[in-house]
Design brief:
Layout: H1 2-15, H2 23-30, H3 34-47, E1 50-54, E2 58-63, H4 70-74, E3 86-92, H5 95-104, E4 112-118, E5 137-143, H6 152-171, E6 176-178, E7 182-185, E8 188-199, E9 204-213, H7 233-237, H8 243-264, H9 267-276, E10 283-288, E11 291-300, E12 306-309, E13 315-318, E14 322-325
Parallel strand pairs: 3-4
Antiparallel strand pairs: 1-2, 4-5, 5-9, 6-7, 7-8, 8-9, 10-11, 10-14, 11-12, 12-13
Helix pairs in contact: 2-3, 6-8, 6-9
Length: about 325
């Protein structure tokens, strides 16, 4: 009940961002007593929100906290279902593990798990993901599409397009996608995506999409071995970004693309993905668990499978691999 009241309170502030709202107006909008409103206002202050209070005028939020909270993301979020249920933590093992527990407990589609720090963040093939506190976006999103398990890899590609579009809108920069799940700026990794599935033989029960975005790190924040290959939005853009704002933009983009996908299929997403892909038309080497394939990347199939044409003209379909661009 309390969280529902908090959501309504933040919706009221979101819909009246330039205005002061009196305690009575907030009580009427939220459907509770003025005393309850005051208690929630105090809780928001404890989270780091700065609220201006003016006698006979009421309250207005003038600054949101440095720490990204569920309430800050809800403030002004313009989605139907994506991010309508948010669980934020300070430190977790990994948001993917937290999300798995919420899936088991019946979390609805669009649920978001976010943390300020991950102690065991990971990417594909269980590689460690460096996720220091108060610098990036470390989050997982739960989806429950009525699809067969074979379609699951497409959700990684949809998410990659959503991340690129969100970064474009926030910074004007245009990242590139390196198949299947890396987002690059100036050839360095800025985002990783990890998709995990819970499914029956013929139907997906849940997809958990892990998204790690390097937002406000400076070069010295990275271990020495990562500095040549990793970057952040702040490094490339030249100034820090509001992380909660980027999350909100990302959730809007993801909801829109996901809805297009469910309504129209993968083809519209495929065209968008290929327009951002760094490898299409270039010579690459794909390192798979069974060996390496070198050749020209032709694009992806309607199922999201990478196609590589080798020197003999044979077209290989690659389902999972590490990609290296030939220099």
């Amino acid at each position: 009940m309390q969280s529902e009241l908090r959501k309504k309170l933040l919706d009221a502030f979101s819909n009246n961002q330039e205005e002061f709202l009196s305690g009575q107006a907030l009580a009427d909008l939220v459907g509770c007593s003025r005393t309850a409103v005051w208690k929630h206002i105090e809780e928001l202050r404890k989270e780091g929100f700065e609220l201006e209070a003016v006698r006979r005028k009421g309250y207005k939020i003038i600054k949101t906290p440095e720490r990204v909270t569920a309430d800050e993301i809800r403030l002004g979020l313009k989605t139907e279902f994506m991010g309508r249920h948010i669980h934020s933590e300070d430190v977790v093992d990994s948001t993917q593990k937290v999300a798995q527990r919420h899936v088991f407990e019946g979390a609805p589609e669009g649920t978001v798990l976010i943390a300020e720090e991950q102690l065991s963040g990971r990417g594909r093939m269980d590689r460690k993901w460096h996720s220091p506190k108060y610098t990036g976006i470390w989050m997982s999103v739960i989806l429950r599409p009525n699809l067969p398990p074979a379609k699951a890899p497409q959700l990684t590609l949809i998410t990659a397009v959503a991340v690129v579009q969100a970064i474009e809108e926030m910074t004007g920069l245009t990242p590139e996608i390196k198949w299947p799940n890396d987002i690059l700026l100036n050839g360095k990794k800025v985002t990783g995506i990890l998709t995990e599935m819970q499914a029956d033989a013929d139907r997906i029960q849940a997809i958990i999409i892990g998204i790690g975005i390097n937002v406000n790190q400076q070069e010295e924040d990275y271990p020495e071995e990562l500095q040549p290959i990793a970057t952040s939005l702040a490094i490339e853009y030249g100034k820090k970004l509001e992380r909660a704002e980027l999350i909100k933009v990302l959730l809007v983009k993801l909801e829109k693309l996901y809805s297009i996908y469910l309504d129209q299929g993968f083809y519209p997403i495929k065209l968008l993905w290929e327009s951002y892909a760094i490898s299409i038309g270039k010579n690459i080497t794909a390192r798979t668990i069974t060996g390496s394939i070198s050749g020209r990347a032709l694009g992806i199939t309607d199922d999201g499978v990478l196609m590589i044409e080798d020197s003999n003209g044979t077209i290989h379909h690659v389902y999972s691999a590490d990609i290296e661009l030939e220099k």
